[in-house]
Amino acid sequence: MEKVILVRYEEIFLKGLNRNIFENRLIKNIKQQLRGFGSVKVTRSQSRIYIESSDAAFDETEAMLRLKKVFGIASVSLVTKVVSDYETIKAATLEHVGSLLKTKPYKTFKVEAKRADKHFPLNSPQICADLGGVILSGFPSSLKVNVHNPDFILYVEVREYTYIYSEIIPAAKGLPTGTGGKATLLLSGGIDSPVAGWMVAKRGVELEAVYFHSYPYTSERARDKVVKLAEILSTWCMGIKLHVVPFTEIQLAINEKCPQDYLTIIMRRYMMKIAQRIAEKNGSLGLITGEAIGQVASQTMESMLVTNAAVTLPVYRPLVGMDKNEVIEIARKIATFDTSILPYEDCCTLFVAKHPVTRPSLEKTKAYEKVLDEDALIEAALSQTECIILQG
Ligand code: ATP
Ligand code: MG
Q: What mean pLDDT, rounded, does the chain reach?
């Protein structure tokens, strides 16, 4: 009898030629996520993945917490694995239920059995009925059957081996990181952009991140906060490379030479252009921002048209139709919220006009920008960009 982690993934993505690519990548990512857990054996069988370790120090609970963050995994369970022999199954069932009752005072249960191995002498309903009886006589004073609303369900799957478990823990879902190409995230210290990055990463996309830092107008602590956010994100998406771009010179130049009401929009176009340069170098197929329609002046449809026109890569805005509260809910779930709300200054709030234009015109923007030496400003910023690798 041994403890094994059962990993389920959703079959809908597994049709056709991509199945192998998907599964191999998922296994590779699982192994990477479990590095540091000693030697683990990861095997695939019948659209499931099983993880076991002969190492006595292997911490299954901790390993499952890690696995919950692997995109592509739908759910995990800690299962008791035994040979598919009925006497052994009965003994393992009693032991499993015994240790479960030590964790909580459960009163009712039902058995759900699945016989995938048709050579097994009992069929699924027979296993349910018989094992139910075994449990009742094993724990006569504490447990009753309740098929409609049981305190726990004992799942028994008879396959080549038999797997017994009672908890299905939901995981990240989505698609395995690395199956969807790469994108570059404009990561600020706010609530939105980490969530935007996470949502795209969930679809199997690898991330690189760019942060525009306006030292000394934004402090080292503001930078540390973004590094921390990138670090949290990296635990979901198998590592992140964060590019920290010095942005002060550009902001000062815009502030000095362009009309006040167009400062923000011109600044945002510079961010996009620089992000695109970094994206092209690292093989990204798109940019990601945390914008939502109408959230602030620079996020109206008109403003986004003008920012988009600065670049040729597609700009993904996964939060476009979301309300702030919906974004916050995800930020809490992915554990970026507490860091995002730390009160450090944001470079976008520096040099802001009292009345930024909410309906900028592309023609005017381009005309105002002409006074800037764009190539020199961008080259200088890129040449001083610092790259931080977060392993995840
Ligand atoms: P966030 O909560 O992500 O900071 P926000 O609601 O504060 O977003 P803005 O400050 O207008 O909105 O920024 C819009 C988007 O532009 C951000 O979601 C982010 O993708 C990008 N962005 C803004 N500031 C920076 C920065 N300093 N570095 C990198 N990207 C930035
Ligand atoms: Mg912001």
A: 93
- Same domain as 142, residue 206: no
Identify the bridge partners of residue 206 per DSSP, sorted by sequence position. Answer: 182
Taking Cα atoms as reference points, which of 97, 99, 95 lies closest to residue 108?
Answer: 97
Q: What is the CATH number of the domain that holds 269?
A: 3.40.50.620
State the CB neighbour count (10 A cutoff) for residue 291.
Answer: 24
**271 and 162 belong to one structural domain:** no
Q: How far is the CA of 312 from the centre of ligand 1 (A)?
A: 19
CA distance 225 to 211: 11
* pTM tops 0.90, yes or no: yes
The one-letter amino acid code at 181 reads G
Half-sphere exposure of 18 (CA within 13 A, CB side): 13
Task: Assess whether the C-beta atom of 192 lies below 6 angstroms from ligand 1.
Answer: yes
Could you tell which of 185, 186, 187, 188 is best to mutate to test the pocket of ligand 1, judged by most ligand atoms within 8 Å of the CB? Answer: 188
User: β-pairing, 108-115 with 144-145?
Assistant: parallel
- Domain residues for the domain of 265 are 182-390
What would the pLDDT profile of 344-390 be if each residue is shown by its tens digit?
766 556 666 777 888 999 999 999 999 999 999 999 999 999 999 99
CA pair distance 56, 221, nearest whole angstrom: 42
Asked if residue 248 has its Cβ within 6 Å of ligand 1, the reply is no
The verdict on 68 and 199 lying in the same domain is no
User: Which residues contact residue 125 at a Cβ distance below 8 angstroms, ignoring those fewer than 6 apart?
Assistant: 113
The closest residue, in CA terms, to atom 11 on ligand 1 is 298
Burial class (CB in 10 A: 0-12, 13-18, 19+), 138: middle
CB 50 within 8 A of CB 5: yes
